[in-house]
Amino acid sequence: MFLIFYILLCPSSSSADTPFPTVSHREMPLRPAILTNHQIMGSAMFTTPIMVIAGTRGHTSLSDLTLTLQTVLGQPGVQNKYVVVVYDPRHIPDVFALSRLFNFSSKAIVPQNFNDTMQYYEVMQVVFETAHAAFPESPYITIVEAGLLLAPDFLAYTASLLPLLHDPNILGISAWNPNGYLNVSTRPDLAYRVEDFPGMAFTLRMDTYLKELRTKMKECCNRR
Ligand SMILES: *[C@@H]1O[C@H](CO)[C@@H](O)[C@H](O)[C@H]1NC(C)=O
Ligand SMILES: *[C@@H]1O[C@H](CO)[C@@H](O)[C@H](O)[C@H]1NC(C)=O
Ligand SMILES: *[C@@H]1O[C@H](CO)[C@@H](O)[C@H](O)[C@H]1NC(C)=O
């Protein structure tokens, strides 16, 4: 189960919006999809770091990661320089080379003691710090767990909801609906306000991390 809310913002959706590779795409260079939806052009979402987390729990395969990265690259308006793959090279080697194929950055994370297992909150801390160091001006951060297949409108959906993050009562925008099966998703224009935090593929204010989470990652953020 992968996807979630469909928001159809773009009535004249063109072929540039079709991210999923087919056989005829095999020989094509890996290029980001082009944004044709004028309503969301200029959204901060297109300059928000997208941090893809891979192999930190020992169960992402390189092929799963490849599929995830294809769906990231397929987001209309995505820019390579904002995509960073954070990975544990003990569990998933070769990510550096794979990320270069996509022209994404990558960052290997290993604990100080090579044999230690990193807790989820420690991984998240590195992810936030890496994004903040690389993109200090960015008010937002997007986190995507490898193994997910993003719906083609993931970025458009988040861009259109991004203004909601001005409301301090809203913690984040998640693209994951655990009940979001296609057979029960009849309202493409509907987003839910929920109390829990589904994680998986979400966008937060960087300030939320810096001011509220940073010093208590272990307490707040050790569960997916
Ligand atoms: C890779 O991305 C950089 C921006 O980060 C861009 O300047 C460069 O042209 C891209 N290279 C290719 C081969 O697409
Ligand atoms: C890690 O574990 C291996 C095998 O169990 C051991 O040989 C090695 O010394 C350990 N390394 C560290 C830094 O503890
Ligand atoms: C929708 O699909 C899911 C997954 O296949 C299934 O578990 C569920 O029963 C379906 N619901 C309805 C209302 O058909």
From TrEMBL:
GO CC annotation: Golgi membrane
Pathway(s) the chain acts in: Protein modification; protein glycosylation
Gene name, Swiss-Prot/TrEMBL: Pomgnt1_4
Similarity remark: Belongs to the glycosyltransferase 13 family.
Enzyme class per UniProt: transferase
Top-level lineage group: Eukaryota
Name under which the protein is recorded: Alpha-1,3-mannosyl-glycoprotein 2-beta-N-acetylglucosaminyltransferase
Pfam families tied to this protein: GNT-I (PF03071)
Membrane topology: Single-pass type II membrane protein
Example of a GO biological process term: protein O-linked glycosylation via N-acetyl-galactosamine
Keywords for the protein's UniProt record, in alphabetical order: Glycosyltransferase, Golgi apparatus, Manganese, Membrane, Metal-binding, Signal, Signal-anchor, Transferase, Transmembrane, Transmembrane helix
UniProt subcellular location: Golgi apparatus membrane
GO molecular function: alpha-1,3-mannosylglycoprotein 2-beta-N-acetylglucosaminyltransferase activity; beta-1,3-galactosyl-O-glycosyl-glycoprotein beta-1,3-N-acetylglucosaminyltransferase activity; manganese ion binding
Cofactor(s) for this UniProt protein: Mn(2+)
Reactions catalysed according to its record: N(4)-(alpha-D-Man-(1->3)-[alpha-D-Man-(1->3)-[alpha-D-Man-(1->6)]-alpha-D-Man-(1->6)]-beta-D-Man-(1->4)-beta-D-GlcNAc-(1->4)-beta-D-GlcNAc)-L-asparaginyl-[protein] (N-glucan mannose isomer 5A1,2) + UDP-N-acetyl-alpha-D-glucosamine = N(4)-{beta-D-GlcNAc-(1->2)-alpha-D-Man-(1->3)-[alpha-D-Man-(1->3)-[alpha-D-Man-(1->6)]-alpha-D-Man-(1->6)]-beta-D-Man-(1->4)-beta-D-GlcNAc-(1->4)-beta-D-GlcNAc}-L-asparaginyl-[protein] + UDP + H(+)
Species name: Portunus trituberculatus
SUPFAM superfamilies: Nucleotide-diphospho-sugar transferases
EC nos: 2.4.1.101
Entry's cofactor comment: The cofactor is mostly bound to the substrate.
TM ranges: none
Its job: Initiates complex N-linked carbohydrate formation. Essential for the conversion of high-mannose to hybrid and complex N-glycans.
Main location: Golgi
Signal peptide per UniProt: 1-16
